[in-house]
Amino acid sequence: MQPLLNIAVRAARRAGEVIVRGMNRVHRLDIRQKGQNDFVSEIDTQAEMEIIETVRKSYPDHAFLAEESGSHGGSIHSEFVWIIDPLDGTTNYLHGFPQFAVSIGVQRRGRMEHAVVYDPLRQELFTASRGEGAQLDGRRIRVSQHVGLERALIGTGFPYRTNLHWIDNYMGMFKAVTQATAGIRRPGAAALDLAYVAAGRLDAFWEFGLSPWDTAAGTLLITEAGGMVSSLQGTEYKQGGNILAGTPKVHAPLVELLAPFVPPELT
């Protein structure tokens, strides 16, 4: 395993331990609201600190872009930037809904090089390094071989926070995808949804208004597993914003299906 990836795995597992220990006292956690339907708990903060401290022991000069503490330890233009979501799916976690994960991406000179998405409940570890493929618990994974939208299983995330003004566009997409596929799943943790696309559990995924820490690791997992990642219009995806990802022969028809509903300001 690449040294950087090895440290990322170690950091993700340590954060996972913090998360699992906290489950026994969820009802007593200090929780604050960052925005509409956007919460942060002391577990998010503790897990993030655990990741950063683990990385700094080996790479003290690296920079960080983390959901709770922001950009620090350098700048986002540093050679190495660790993009961290310590607990993707906080709302699920606070309700005892078992779908959340740790997401860590390592970027070098603006390009994602290593990725870890760790599900601490199932103890599933999704990893990838650029040019070396994607793995689940050390076994090679690939996106599904599904062709077309019929019988495809599609993941999504509902608009929230500042994205609620696009709700009508989204509902048009939701209806169209529901009518064209085998079904839609909305588990509530984008990093894990993207990992599921990489592992072939979902054939594709789309969502509005994500942040870089939501997608940094998952997008590399998908491309290393043979999938495609783009904007909603099928153009180049830049970390954060609106995303459409999937196995190639589902990705293309999904871009076409969603096109009439993409908000004009996003085209």
TrEMBL record:
Its EC number is 3.1.3.25. The keyword rRNA processing does not apply. It catalyses: a myo-inositol phosphate + H2O = myo-inositol + phosphate. Its cofactor is Mg(2+). It comes from the Bacteria. Keywords: Hydrolase, Magnesium, Metal-binding, Transcription, Transcription antitermination, Transcription regulation. InterPro entries: IMPase, Inositol_monoP_metal-BS, Inositol_monophosphatase-like, Inositol_monophosphatase_CS, Inositol_monophosphatase_SuhB. Belongs to the inositol monophosphatase superfamily. This is Inositol-1-monophosphatase. It comes from Steroidobacter gossypii.
